[in-house]
Design brief:
alpha/beta, 33% helix, 19% strand, globular, Rossmann fold, single chain, 245 residues, 8 strands, 7 helices
């Protein structure tokens, strides 16, 4: 991670005061937040949370934004009942904590969610987005899951899948220029590797002056200088999903 005392800057940003428009459901062994558009649709997006878990209001805000754009959005508890990280936790224990929550070992849960979307919601096309820990999970899924059409990885921790670039599906990577946990040299290397190995459409975009978590962890109304980039990141995410779903 970035350093021993502060191994992850995921507490940068704001906790939204937001209740959510969807509902919590039980999908086999997983709890999940689901929001559906009133008009009905056969397109869905799986939202993969960051280290703060599936109940973070910020993540539900983004899920509801997807629904406002015509998608069924589902944010499952990919920690499967294990506690999410709390800002009050000791960062010195973070590495041990995250080892028990591997972003590359969510395949069983994703399969359960896909089955639910197809069988219970009539979904035919499924994409995935994820933030930080969830962004790394998106890259993992884009390398191997045949049932997903596309993905958006928002500041996904590159080093977790540093040597894997043969993506199966179109993938959009969002990074902040000032992200302490993902140095720009890692982003440059990712681009080089994708250029060499990737046979599908992809895009890597760096947003000027932005820190880790900016798309879902910063409030536009109290960060006026960041507002254009927050809005641009969200618009880019929606446009990518619209293109491939």
């Amino acid at each position: 991670m970035a350093n021993e005392s502060r191994p992850c800057p995921c507490d940068i940003g704001d906790r939204f005061d937001y209740g959510g428009r969807g509902q919590e459901v039980q999908v086999e062994h997983i709890k999940a937040y689901v929001c559906k558009p009133p008009a009905g649709t056969d397109r869905a997006v799986i939202v993969i949370h960051d280290i703060f878990g599936w109940q973070l209001p910020n993540t539900r805000y983004i899920a509801d934004m997807l629904t406002a754009n015509g998608y069924i959005a589902i944010c499952p508890d990919f920690f499967v009942g294990q506690e999410a990280w709390k800002p009050s936790n000791d960062w010195a224990s973070f590495d041990d904590w995250v080892k028990t929550r591997d972003a590359g070992k969510i395949d069983k849960e994703v399969d359960v969610v896909i089955k639910y979307l197809k069988d219970q919601c009539g979904v035919k096309k499924i994409g995935v987005i994820g933030f930080c820990w969830g962004g790394a999970a998106v890259q993992h899924l884009m390398l191997k899951n045949p049932h997903l059409k596309t993905g958006v990885s928002l500041y996904g921790v590159i080093r977790r899948f540093a040597d894997k670039h043969s993506l199966l599906h179109p993938t959009f990577f969002i990074f902040g220029e000032k992200d302490d946990i993902i140095p720009l040299e890692q982003v440059t290397l990712l681009e080089q590797k994708l250029k060499q190995n990737c046979k599908v459409d992809y895009e890597v975009k760096i947003y000027p002056g932005q820190t880790h978590g900016f798309v879902h962890r910063k409030r536009e109304d109290i960060n006026p200088q960041d507002k254009p980039y927050i809005e641009e990141g969200r618009k880019d995410m929606i446009n990518w999903l619209n293109k491939y779903l």
